[in-house]
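Hello forum,

I keep getting stuck at the same step: I have a sequence, I want structure tokens, and every attempt I make locally crashes halfway through. Rather than fight my setup again tonight, could one of you with a working pipeline run this one for me? It's a single chain of 924 residues.
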Amino acid sequence: MQAVGAGLITLLWVSGLWGAVAAWEAHHKRSLWQKASWSAWIIHSLALLGTVGLLLYTLLAHRYEFHYAWAHGSRLLPVEYITAALWEGQEGSFLLWMIWHVVFGWAILAIRDENRWALLAGLLATNGYLATFLLGVSLPKWSIIVGGVMLWTVWAARDLPTAYRLIGVGLLLSGMIIDLWWVKVGIVAFALILMGGGKIPFLSTAAIIALVSLPLGTTWGSFPFLYLWEVRGDVPPGFIPTDGNGLNPLLQSFWMVIHPPVLFSGYAAAALPFWEGLLILRSGKLTTTSSRRLLRWIWLTVGLLGLGIGLGAYWAYETLNFGGYWNWDPVENASLAPWLVLVAAAHMLWVWRRQRKASGLALTLTLLGFPMVLYSSYLTRSGVLSDSSVHSFTDLGLGSWLLWGVGLSLLGIGVMGIRALRRSQPKLTDTRPIMQSALTGGAALLVWIALVLIVFTSLPAINKILGTNWTLGSGALQVYYEWIGVFTVPLLGLMGYALVRAYKVKGWERILWGSALALGLIVLVLWWAGWDFVYHTTYRNLLSSSSWTARARGAIFLLLDDLLWGGALVSGGAALAVWFRKLRGTHIWAVIAHIGFAMMIIGALLSSGYEKVISQNLNPRSPSTSDNLFIPRGGSSVALGYFVRYDGLVEPLPPIRSVTPLLHEKGQTLWRFRDSLGFFYQVWLPEGLLSQGELIRSVALPSASSFIESNLALLPTEPADRRYRYRVSLTTLDSTQTYPLLLEADVSESSGLLAHPAHVRLWHGDLYVHITSLPKAEGSPLAQATLAFGIKDTASFEDVVMVFERLTEVENAPHPTFRAWFAAWKGLPELVQRFSVDFSIREKELLTPIATLPALGLSVQLESVSVKAGKLNFRVAVRRRPDAFITVKILYKPFIGLFWMGILLTLVGAFGAMLRHRQINHSI
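Reply #2:
Ran it on my machine without issues. Output:
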């Protein structure tokens, strides 16, 4: 099977590169090349499908002799998570990226796009480049040099005189043999000068630059079908583990199934405006039709990439416990930066379509989107962010290849730009109106914000290059707030002004005055409600500083949140004015997107800047901190506006069903089952088990189901997804409303406590609740004791209180049979549960089954009768769990729904704009 995988990836790589050449020739209306490109495209699609299918098979079939399946798969994962493990690793994520290129390629062929062969050439070239990350081979340097020289001689330089071919061969040999960087830079510069002077064509120049820039002498990619012992030297050849590592607990989420595929669809879509833009730059002429085509691809990319980023934010909000949806993580920033640049590019194209100016700037921004996507991948996959981001992959030696792609794409833009300059095309080189309109000013601010994000995100890479140690430190959130917030204020104002000017709507002064009045009322309400912005304390302290610069900084940033409010109101107000003044027309998508962006800013300000800690601990004797509530099991505590009650760990409750064996290992079998509440649990049992000591009921096992259900209270079960669930309820102080919650937490020795939040959805905001600490279980997992009870006696054992209420006789039984009735609870007596223990007397022999109470982890069995003392001696066992107490943190995030609604409207506007430009021959 490894040979099959190697063959498929080789075919994928070759068909991508060869197909790119064939499709490019087919673009020039050569019918024979069209047939060749069709064949290459079909072979490429089938090879990619086969590679993905084979890798997915190793995961689903649990072929753990393969390193990728062992590293990312597990028998314990459900099918959807095993499928998601396909793109958890680097190799699988590159395959996912390539799949989307193929999907877009078939869509382009289906709609018979005018430039379909050129775009297909670009997609195949991109996939050929990405396929190098899967080869995992170290090709001899001489073979690459010989292949490059042959490619130059036969194809790239076919139209050059013999003398120029020989000069090119000499340049290639010197550039590929000599590893000095300045030699390579000199050759590239010489080739660009020759092209600028009209001596050699673009194709020859591009070939020289690409071949000279190849990172030779390194391993090409990481092969995904390596055996485990080929990767790990400590594993003997032929060894096959019984199970794999599985997904990281944080990734075992529904969002892992959908977020990465959507995000990579945006990454893949970024190639479409890039290749379309290169075609336009090559022709030297931006037209109404080509600009509409370009806008279609840009808005598609903006929509898909924005949807991927939005889903990632929602995943963080739903699953992680840092208290929000955006943490300015380097990988989050690296995805946002190309999105901002492409939005700026779309708006600059809009300027060109209205004014016929700044075409060069519009095309430059359009073309930068794809290199920025590649650079984002470099930051993620090179390992350079391993110390600063939870998203970062480990380095598999792919960093240099990713930078090679970034550099080559930038060089391609430069070469095409020089060619356009040589042709003296004023329409492509006119950049006069950069700051002459609100739209260009807004686009410039978007690009500046993207640049700030990229620079701050690249600090680890810069440190490695320069040997420095620049970091944002613990105040990173504040740094981003200052740098991004300062430029967002004018951006919002320019958004509003540009919109009303673009659609010739009057009343800009009214919009300003109305927004100012609304801002004053909002500030008054916030002041009356006592809502302080999250950084106010920091900046208020600066006001008392002895330094006038510190005082000025404090005063400026104390006002920044109000200015952001004002900018969002201006932008949203302008969009509403356009909507009401022009009830019909193509402006609708722009209006929706601008309203959505304003709502997103307002929602972010309210939910993050004005969040409030509800779990303020006002009890000075409580062991928890000021922002956490300590609650014993069965007890309650008071938060701001709520009673918080903790009812303990969710235990498996019978009847059980769907009992399935998963693993057989060291004489034990791992069984998985679903309880009556619908949760999955699992338990290890010795194979052939009939009894387990005195407290496990001995039964003839017609099935594992009956044994597990009979002994459910005592068996060491654990949640199948390793997420323990704790019952917590929030009740308003007037007792009119109760919100039951299940707080989830992964508890393991390796990762510690990984808490997952629960949310109470209110019309005016969310209550964001998560566990901050749990007790550690000590001693044996099963506590046992013998307790003597008389009627009405009460005893306590392991925080379980039991009361022997009465003793009754069971009628019509073949032997004297009695029933002892108990009441038991943990914590509050209001949580009492009643159960009975039966026993029979037959020829002076005491027969008694075990009575279980799974909800309390309790098992009781009559052990003996003390007639003289009038006592019944019961053997009691309690399963210990880390649920004696919890500490929780509760945040109130006001009007967070505005943030999510804003993202949705912004994306609707982007996709709507994409559909508007689908008719490429429609005139403006």
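Residues 288-319 form the longest helix (32 residues). If your local run keeps crashing, start a new thread with the error log.
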